[in-house]
Amino acid sequence: MINDFDLLTTCDISGFLKEEIRSIIIYKSDVNDSDIVLDINCGVGEISSEFSNLAQKVYAIDESPQAITISENNIKKHGNIDNVELMNEYDLSAIEKIENFDIAILHAKNDNYNEILDIVHEKINSKGRILILTNFLDIEVNVVNKLDELNYNPQITQVNITKGQLLYKGIKMENQNPMTIIFAKKR
């Protein structure tokens, strides 16, 4: 796992995932070295960096040029850049271009997650895995309903990472990066 403090970040790009959450995502994805992975709305590329060392190929997709630049730097520093294709495009058009993939990881923060799930459902390989990451309750509910409509059986995991900070009076515990991970496997 890449240490949180070793990743390049910026306050202009939200959604940085703590290493504990990344480890759960890797475990839930059941990734192997023959898998092709989509990292949709990749942000600073922490997921793409991790998966580039584990999968055959990773498509890191984000419409922000700044996100793609930071992702590229993080992947070069921590991952296997030879296994990654960086796509500075709108998510729907990028996914349309990719014909073959096993795992789709969606950082659901926009209103187009239903359209993304429709395209992913049509294009993902048999027994493909979908992981949706969000910390918005309305998106969680809508995604679960959409996956049910597409005949998936979603599993919902809510993760709250709490880390301690040593103070002069003791240890202060702070909640960091609450996240819901919705996992579904194509039947």
Question: Can you describe what's shown?
Answer:
The chain has 187 residues and is α/β, with parallel strands linked by helices. It has a single domain, classed as 3-Layer(aba) Sandwich (Rossmann fold). Helix content is 34%, strand content 33%. Helix 2 (46-52) runs parallel beside helix 3 and helix 4 (91-97) runs parallel beside helix 5. The protein is globular. The two termini are 30 Å apart.
Question: What structural keywords apply?
Answer:
187 residues; alpha/beta; Rossmann fold; seven-stranded mixed sheet; 33% strand
Summed over residues and divided by their number, the pLDDT gives a mean of 93
Largest sheet: 7 strands, mixed
Report the count of strand segments: 7
* Total helical elements: 6
Specify the helix fraction band: 25-40%
Low-confidence stretches: none
Brief synopsis:
With 187 residues, this protein is an alpha/beta fold. The protein has 6 helices and 7 strands, in the order αβαβαβαβαβαββ.
